[in-house]
């Protein structure tokens, strides 16, 4: 796996240095070519180590080293930037795709997620395709504005227009971050995306953001009755179990889709005879917004429906997705999330409630209805503390189990 990753990195570097834009299939072919070249070179070196000269190889003649006159070894001093402006380092070609990789080399060490990297990479690829070049030094503020306007008029894969919120929080946020890093590291003289934004959309809410009881039952019943077609077994399992997990954990859809087999265990808790099944939501499994591990007890109805038995029956590590060739999960994770959104929307067509996120709103609503303390709800849902006082202490696993067990069973 390490060699495969190295080959992909070599392919990406070759593409980046030449200012090319390739699709995933071409990237895969290039990585294989890199691997084949390395293998041939390795065999050649082995033969040479045995004293065998490969066909067509000529031993180089010994030559005296070239000496550079001392006067030529002294580099001329660089002129200082005018008006105190930062100069752009080096004369190597600066590409847009290369800037993303440079940004990521530093951002990864600060805790930025792989999903953020993928989002920014896709945004930059889109900009390259729009501008029809990969030269970062040619990008102006007018180019960024033109790309923003283009994205606002674009249509997504589902046939719906790209939302202003997506353009602002994904496209422009990515450009500002990467160009900002480039300017700070003297790759570019300035950030061309500075000050460019999208007007805030005034939303009209005609309903609550959580699923009603009837809507919740409709989705959960459909999940129980779902039959596997041509979809992957993991996608089928996600449609069968993730809606139920969202209903009784308050977790984000991505946190559940990325679950691993080892993230479910049984523990003994006082006042809970027979033990309690506990889900561990951890950054080790993928992306967690707060970057903090949290444990969520499993509701008795999920146990009765057989979720622990399902998890035990899975032979691979991931319960609901298939990692890509490199072992990454960012792309597959987004794909399963999209399929779940489509599945939920088939049951509840009202655009006023989000097909996945509506479950988090419902969980919070139900917890409030049970007079659950805000700190308990935050601990279960993974919301950050809003005050210094909330950062002190914690919520025990037993207290969390008590809250979960108070949630009513769903009659389907």
Give a description of the structure.
InterPro entries: CB, DNA_brk_join_enz, Integrase-like_cat_sf, Integrase_catalytic, Integrase_recombinase_N, Tyrosine_recombinase_XerCD. Residues 61-77 have a biased composition (Low complexity). Residues 206-405 form the Tyr recombinase domain. This is Integrase. This protein is mostly helical and 412 residues long. It folds into three domains: 1-43, no CATH class; 93-184, DNA polymerase, domain 1 (Orthogonal Bundle); 213-406, Orthogonal Bundle (hpI Integrase, Chain A), CATH 1.10.443.10. The protein is built from 15 helices and three strands. It has helices at 2-17, 24-49, 96-107, 114-131, 141-153, 164-184, 213-225, 233-249, 253-257, 300-305, 307-313, 330-347, 358-369, 374-381, 397-406, and strands at 264-269, 272-281, 294-297. The protein has a three-stranded antiparallel β-sheet, with helices on one face. Helix 4 packs across helix 6 and helix 5 (141-153) packs antiparallel against helix 6.
CATH superfamily heading of the largest domain: Intergrase catalytic core
The CA-CA distance between the termini, in Å, is: 45 Å
The share of residues in helices is 40-55%
Number of domain modules: 3
CATH architecture of the largest domain: Orthogonal Bundle
Q: What does the average pLDDT come to?
A: 84
Q: What is the CATH domain class of the largest domain? A: Mainly Alpha
Uncertain residue segments: 58-87
Secondary structure category: mainly alpha
- The number of helical runs is 15
The number of distinct β-strands equals 3
Q: Classify the beta-strand content into a percent band.
A: under 5%
Largest sheet: 3 strands, antiparallel
